[in-house]
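User: Quick one: structure for sequence A, then sequence B.

Assistant: Sequence A:
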Amino acid sequence: MTPHSFLPGESDSRVTLETLDSYRTLWHSHREALPCNCPFVLPPWVQSWWTVFGAGGERLIFSVRRGQRVIGMAPLMLQGDTVRFLGDPRLSDYFDCIVEPGRERLFFQALLTHLSAMGMRRVFLGPSPPDSSVMTFFGQNKPFGGMDWFLTEDETFSRVRLPRSWDEFLSGLHGKQRHEVRRKFRRLHETGSVQFRKVSEVERVPQAMDTFLHLFTMNRANKATFMTGPTVQFFRTLAVALAEEGLLRLFFLEVNGHPVASVFCVDHEGTRYLYNNGYDSRWQQMSVGTLSKLMSLQDAMVEGCEGYNFLKGAESYKARLGGHPIPLSCVHAALS
C-alpha cells in the first residue's frame, strides 16, 4: 500500500493505492462496516477478471481513510485516457464502490480530488443501480471544485423479494403463470427420477464446471461463440475464487442421473444472483432452463435469502416470475 495524497482541508482524510492482496485483506476486515450489494466488485471477482484480462491495463484500486478508519474502496483501472471500474460490462452486470453508508459524499470528493491531482481528466463509472453508492452521490450532488458530470441510462436488471415459503412465492404469481409453473414441474417429474444437485465446495468445482460449460454451449449458438478461450478461463477461475469465499452456488438439474440444466449463482448479503445458466437443447420442450432457475430460487428461500436477482436482460420470463425491472445508470465525469 502506498499513500498518495491528503485532501486540502481534510488533513485526516487519505487516499491510498491498494494491491489486489491488500484490497482482499481490507474487504475481509471491514465487511460489516462496508456492506456491498454488488458482487461484481468484490475481490474474488476483481482478481479473477484481472488475472485473465488485465494484461496491458493499469490497475487503480483505492481506499479512502478518515483518520485510521477505512470509509470506502474503489476497484478502478485506467483504460486509454479514462478511469473506469475494473472489469467488463459483458462479464459483470453492474458496478459500484464499497462505501460506508452515509459517507458517500466524503468518499467520492476524496476520490475525485485525488484522481484530478494525479492528472486524470476523464472518469466513467457504471453501469450502477439506483441504490448504489455511485448513484447515491452523483444522483444527489451538484458538481464541485471545477468538476462536472452527467448521467446516461443503461440497461435494466430484475429482482424479486423472496417470501418465506415456496407456496407464498407461487401465490404471488398471476394465476395463469402459477398454473404453468405447476404444470411444468409435473411434466418434468413424469419423465423419470428428478434431482437438483448443488455444488459449492472448492474441491468439486473444477469437475462441476466441465459440466456447466458443456451445457452452457449447447442451447444457443451465440452462447457457444461467447464461451471460448479467455472467457472459459475466466469462468473457471471465478468459480473457484467464489467457492473459496463461500459465495458460489452451482446447481445441476438431473433427470435419471443425467444433467440437463445448470445454474451458476452467487450468494451475497442475503441475495442470490443468477449469473448464468445453460441447458441441454434436447430437453428444451420440457422447460428445463426455466425449471432449473425456479429450483435455484426455491433453494434460495430454504437458505434464507431475502432476494433473488435475475441480473441484466429483458427476458420475458423474469417478469413472469415476479421480477421487477430496475434501471442502471452511468456517470461521465470531467475532471479539471
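Sequence B:
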Amino acid sequence: MDTSKPTIFYCQGLWTQAETAQLRRALATLQPQANKPLIIDGSKVEALDSVGALLLVHCARHWESLGGTVQWKGFSEAHEEVFSLIREYAPDQPIVPTQPSLPWMQILGQKTVNLGLQLWAFFSFIGRVCYEILGWCRSPTKIRFKSICANIQATGTRATFIIALLSFLIGIVLSYQIGVQLRNYGANIFVVDFLGLAILREFGPMITAIIIAGRTGSSYAAQIGTMKLTEEVAALQTMGLSPIEVLVLPRLMALWIALPLLVILSEVMALFGGMIMAKTMLGLSFFDFMDRFSSAIDLKTFLIGLIKVPVFASLIAAIGAFQGFQVKDSAASVGERTTISVVQGIFMIIVVDAGFSILFDQLGL
C-alpha cells in the first residue's frame, strides 16, 4: 500500500441535482491513482441530496477499485445518513465521473445552435422592451420617475469622478503622444486639431461607454440576476407587474439621460488634460489652445460624436438587463452572466462605433 501524501478533494457549495453538470466536471478533474489514499472533505458543503451523494460514492468506489483507500471528513450527521442510504441501495459497480468527449463537428453544431437561441432570446427581449416603451408613451402616468432618478444618481452622479479622472489622463496621454511627433516638424499648434477630432468624434463617447459598460452594465446584470435568484422577479410577475417595466425601463431611461452628460464631462476633462500637456511640453498657452480649437473644430464634430451615445446607452442597458434575466439557479451563474455582460457590452460598443465610422465616411461627415 502506498503511504505517500493523500489526495484531498474539497467539496463546497451545493451538491444537488440542479448542479449535476458542474459536479461531474469537478469530479472529472480528480485523477484516480492506484494504491493512493483519498480524503473527501465536506466541511464546506452547503447542501447535499441523493444525486450529489451518489456522485461522491461512485467516485470513492472507483478509487477503491484501484487499490486506494477513501476517508470521509467534515460531513454533517444529516449528510452521513444520506451516504449510508446511498451505500446500501446504490449499485456496487463504480462509475467513473468522466465527461464524454464529443466530435468537434458536434461541439461546433451545439455552439452554433446555442448562439442562435441566445440571439433569438435577445431580440425577443428587445421586442418586449420596445413594447413596454410604447406603453409608457401611451400612458405617461405609468413612468416611474422616482426609479429613473435613483438610477440616474447611481449611473451618472456616482460615476463622474472615475470618468473625469480617466478622461483627464487620456487627454494627457494623447496630447503627449501627438505632441512628440508634431514637435519634430515644428507644427505644435496642430495638436489642437488632432485632440479635438479624436476626443470629440471617437475617444470621448467610446471610452466613456466602455467604462460605463464595465461599471454600470455589470451592475445591471448582477442586480437583476440576484433578484431572479431570490425569486423577486417571480414575485413581480405574481403581483401582475411586468419585470421589463419595473426593472429594465427605468435603468434604460436613466442611461439615456446620464450617458450623454458623462460624455460631455469626459470630453471637457480630456481636452483640459491635453491643454495642460500642450502648455507643459509644447509651450502652447491656454489662450492659443482655445483660439485654435474654436477655429479648427466646429459644432458638427461635437454632434457627430454625441449621435452615437444613445445607441451605446441602449446597448449597455439591454445587454446588462438581458444577461441578468438569463441567470439560473446558482450564485455562480450570477458571476458568469455578469462577466458575459461586460464582455458583450464592450465588444458591441467597439463594433457599433466602427459601423458609425464607416457610415459617416460614406455620408461625407
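The two ends are 79 Å apart (CA to CA). The chain has two domains: 7-89, 144-363.

User: Thanks, that's what I needed.
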